[in-house]
């Protein structure tokens, strides 16, 4: 049996795939990627992603959410549009979270929007797909504040240390999304992956961003998932088949609607 993978985070509705999304999905299936989850950003990219999910049932799945980088003063209007798009086939709320990398102008609004979406996820019994950049302390403060909510989810494009992973486990069996960054020279996350249990890892590409070595500078796509899996297998000293089976089971455990 060939290895079967799930790409838990690929922006195939992005303009980067406007001309060849069908071909990319066909090649991903050939590469053993059986399911792909489309993360939502805001209303500007939503329709393209949802159209692909509708076209490929059983292969493409969608999340809905308001991305922290898209949060402004008027975030509630965007949030209304996002909520209207949630349906029985929505597999998660995402990507949601905090991003202070480019600007902290709307940090207060980002925190409000994030807390609002965590409460919504709890109410809908959906997992959350977290985008976190340069805001670790505020993220954990919000998790602490939301301790009473039945939350489950994963931190996508996890680039933290084992200590950050361990801190996350205080709030339940949170998982981490591991992608191309694990192949980068001197990546901190490579040493964390050695110690993070395989059951807590889901695979992702974050296509079209963050391609693995030796494809840096190129467009990333879900066919590169086996490169990430091979790197995790190498770091842990196990077979790639075990990485495929365990991470696919972990993705299905978290995203129960897959
Ligand atoms: Ni993303």
Percent in strands:
15-25%
What is the CA-based Rg, rounded?
17 Å
Distinct ligands? nickel (II) ion
Helical proportion, percent range: 40-55%
General form: globular
Largest sheet, if any?
8 strands, parallel
Strand order of the largest sheet: 1-2-3-4-5-6-7-8
Low-confidence stretches at least 5 residues in length (pLDDT < 50)? Answer: none
Question: Roughly how many Å apart are the termini?
Answer: 21 Å
What would the average pLDDT be, to the nearest integer? 97
Give the helix/strand class.
Answer: alpha/beta
How many strand units? 8
Tally of helical segments: 9
Order of helices and strands: EHEHEHEHEHEHEHEHH
Describe this structure in words.
- The chain has an 8-stranded parallel sheet with strand order 1-2-3-4-5-6-7-8.
- It has helices at residues 21-30, 43-55, 75-85, 107-124, 136-145, 162-168, 188-195, 225-236, 240-254; strands at 5-7, 33-38, 60-64, 90-99, 128-133, 153-155, 175-178, 201-203.
- 40% of the residues lie in helices and 16% in strands.
- The chain is α/β, with parallel strands linked by helices.
- It is globular and about 45 Å long.
- Helix 8 (225-236) packs across helix 9 (240-254).
- The protein is built from 9 helices and 8 strands.
- The structure holds nickel (II) ion.
- Residues 9, 11, 39, 95, 206 line the site of nickel (II) ion.
Task: Give a quick precis of the structure.
This protein is an alpha/beta fold and 258 residues long.
Question: Could you outline the blueprint of secondary structure elements for this entry?
Answer:
Layout: E1 5-7, H1 21-30, E2 33-38, H2 43-55, E3 60-64, H3 75-85, E4 90-99, H4 107-124, E5 128-133, H5 136-145, E6 153-155, H6 162-168, E7 175-178, H7 188-195, E8 201-203, H8 225-236, H9 240-254
Parallel strand pairs: 1-2, 2-3, 3-4, 4-5, 5-6, 6-7, 7-8
Nickel (II) ion is lined by residues 9, 11, 39, 95, 206.
């Amino acid at each position: 049996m060939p290895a079967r993978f799930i790409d838990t985070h690929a922006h195939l509705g992005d303009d980067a795939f406007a001309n060849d999304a069908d071909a990319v999905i066909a090649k991903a299936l050939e590469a053993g990627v059986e399911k792909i989850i489309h993360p939502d950003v805001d209303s500007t990219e939503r329709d393209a992603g949802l159209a692909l999910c509708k076209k490929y049932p059983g292969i493409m799945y969608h999340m809905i959410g308001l991305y922290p980088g898209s949060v402004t003063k008027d975030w509630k209007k965007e949030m209304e549009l996002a909520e209207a798009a949630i349906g029985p086939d929505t597999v998660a709320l995402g990507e949601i979270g905090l991003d202070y990398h480019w600007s902290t102008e709307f940090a207060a609004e980002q925190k409000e929007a994030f807390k609002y979406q965590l409460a919504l996820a709890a109410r809908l019994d959906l997992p959350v797909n977290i985008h976190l950049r340069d805001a670790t302390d505020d993220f954990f403060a919000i998790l602490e504040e939301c301790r009473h909510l039945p939350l489950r989810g994963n931190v996508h494009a996890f680039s933290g240390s084992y200590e950050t992973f361990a801190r996350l486990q205080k709030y339940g069996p949170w998982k981490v999304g591991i992608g191309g960054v694990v192949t980068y020279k001197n990546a901190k996350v490579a040493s964390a992956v050695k110690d993070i249990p395989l059951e807590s890892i889901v695979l992702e590409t974050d296509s079209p961003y963050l391609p693995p070595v030796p494809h840096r500078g190129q467009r990333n796509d879900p066919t590169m998932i086996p490169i990430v899996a091979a790197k995790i297998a190498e770091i842990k000293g196990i077979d790639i088949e075990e990485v495929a089976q365990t991470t696919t089971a972990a993705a299905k455990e978290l995203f129960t609607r897959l």
